Amino acid sequence: MPQPALIAHDLVRSPGGRRVLDGICLTASPGHRIGLIGENGVGKSTLLRVLAGVDEPDAGSVSRPAGTGFLHQEMPFDAATTIAAVLDEALREAREDLAELERLGEELARVPEDHPAHRRLLDAYGRRLEQARDRESWDADRRAALVLDGLGLGGFGHDRTLGSLSGGQRGRLALAALLVRRPPALLLDEPTNHLDDGAAAFVEEQIRALPGAVVVASHDRAFLDAVCTDLLDLDPAVDGPVRYGGNYSAYLSQKRAERERWERRYAEEEQELRELRHAAGVSAHRVAPDRERRDNEKMGYGHRAGRVQNQISRRVRDATRQLEELDRTRVAEPPRPLRFAPRALAAPAGESPLPVVALREVRVPGRLALDTLEVAAADRLLVTGGNGAGKSTLLAVLAGCLPAEGEVRRRPGLTVGLLTQDTVFARPDRTVRDTYELSLGPERAGRVPLGSLGLMHEADLDKPVGQVSVGQRRRLALALLVARPPHLLLLDEPTNHLSPRLCDELEAALGTGPGAIVVASHDRWLRRRWQGRELRLEPWQEHREDTARARARR
Fold this sequence. Notes:
- By secondary structure, the protein is α/β, with parallel strands linked by helices.
- The protein has helices at 44-52, 83-110, 116-135, 140-150, 167-181, 197-208, 221-227, 248-287, 295-298, 301-329, 391-399, 432-440, 442-447, 470-482, 500-510, 524-528, 540-553, and strands at 6-13, 21-28, 33-37, 59-63, 69-70, 185-189, 213-217, 230-233, 242-245, 357-364, 368-375, 380-384, 405-410, 416-419, 488-492, 516-520, 533-536.
- Residues 542-554 have low confidence and may be disordered.
């Protein structure tokens, strides 16, 4: 039984009066895995919500397979729901398949082959059998255990409630439930957030094995490279959103070539417009009735006046007609893309040879165990490790936001900036511009205008912070840090929710300049290109056991 396609036609969506989707068309056929990319705020999450039926389009239509799965940012269960209840719901369809096959099989055994109902029962059995095969219903319980293990949730008791889980754990459980279900079409919004390397690789393998269509919005360049068969770029283009065949690496080269063609076509048409305007202007001047004629034009003028006048008038009309046609059909000017261009991410901390921060025998019970760490004045340090290893905890200790056992020494006068994973502003009703200016003060905001950093479009500056996308709020938080560069900049998963292009530019900025920068990240693309030091943290329990074994050996 062939899987149905997911089809969207001429989608328009204007939340809050701002048109985010404008005539979007998309066909996601079974076996195709389409990545949605583009700048923050171009409508990736909006498109997914419309495709899923969570939001209705203002115009256009969506045809989706029954049972399409959608990875919500928050699970559609209350805090008292247990993991067992979530798994039961994920396994419900598979169990219904098996129960219905058993029922139909029993009926078929009772109804003679020559009875008119036998053919109807046989057809129903065949359809249900194909559906069960697509869902791998016989293997569902084993698959559930495999998926939970693959996403680092295998050790959790099934009686635990969602309220007892962290946000990252709830997100992984929501993803696990969808992978257990194997829906006929799958819509994913940032599926690799909160996943370590092993879990991300496991999810990639699972998604590649799905028979149905997949549409995913992701900042994870390594994930897009490993999974996608196509990419839909929602950034402005000559003829609207462009679909590129291949993975993220293929997209990068195609995108550059597409942009160059657009810029070249625009430049050529602008040159042609200038030439036509000049030609029309010169010809019009020559045919002007009150133009004074030179002496050599006066002789014989009356004889030739009518013919010359007609020729020049025709040239004016031809040039004007060409001008109007070109003006009507010419391509729009390529919008200037945002370019992240901070003067510096961090500031120099002086000439002292001492580290800006030094840790000795630091412990945060149940979260972090670190024997020693020194961060030099111009250090570039990448902190890695699996979920629960204490990466965010370490950054909070370095920032002075979290007390810890042991010794923490900071250089006097040290300024520290921390970009946390969750970007929350106290006044979501305040505009982006006002939030920036009030946070920095008018003098600093005037010296470093928000628009100069290449993080926010001018059109978004007067929107309330609560109405911009998660990625745009993340950009604003980053802007507030680099507008007043600290001596020590701490970035916790800085590429989460940012567009792939901005991630590339942020990585380039991390490698140069003064000051110390510590980055905690699971981003495989970033880590493959990292040029500085690296510190890998082990989970607290493992560290405690290793230390005990080492002491026993001594």
